[in-house]
Amino acid sequence: MRRKIVAGNWKMNNTFQNAEDLLDELVDSLANEQEDQDVEVVVCPPFLYAEMALDMSTDDEDASQPQVFYSVGVQNVSEYEKGAYTGEISAGMLASMNVEYCIVGHSERRKYFGETDSQVARKVEQLLQNAITPIVCCGEQEADREAGNQFEVVGRQLKEGLFHLKPLDFSRLIIAYEPVWAIGTGKTATPEQAQEMHAFIRGLVQEQYGKEIARVVPVLYGGSCNAKTAKDLFAMPDIDGGLIGGASLDARDFVAIINSFEK
Ligand code: 13P
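That is the input. Now the predicted structure with 1,3-dihydroxyacetonephosphate docked in place:
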């Protein structure tokens, strides 16, 4: 069986106070309402709140066996190791704070900050060298899909961003398929559209890395995934969970999504 993962990408939202309130509510809901403890929950707040998110992620009432409610990720990382890169945050810094996951190549970073597949490749390497799990995003624009080019676009993103990795390194990452036309638009991909792309992605991974790695690599869906749409998406054979934007800003909605896997 593959891992089941739901990750929340808060993007550039929430004041410090709102973030604390949301995490408080999330811990409470997870403690009382998470139905399947096998679902891995990841919260990716803005960098500034990562330390608070880490502090609030465990219940250390019993210090010998702390209960961990969620893992902490961030939304970006520098492609460089260290040095004179004003404003950047390195993978080594993240590792030194126990951050465990990092989103890479999100379409918003590609669109607004010009992030390229070769930068994605370098960021993934930095993360893997520091034992942080990359959540690598891919996905086509609306015009690509209208022109029937979605498989070519996603295939190129994966080949150029990831397929230089050695099998052992590749086997440590998570892929997120996020069609750009579905992000923040309320226009969720149908379960069939998402499944078709997830199966295509798994097929490419199989060609490059073989059956076993393709069988286990988690492929998440993102793009207007919410408490209503998650169930049918997660029921698809190649969809292993979600990367959630807007709905991760509401603890109840986020936990409802976490509870949307087939029982
Ligand atoms: P929405 O869930 O708000 O559409 O965002 C998806 C996303 O971009 C997650 O990374």
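The mean pLDDT is 97.
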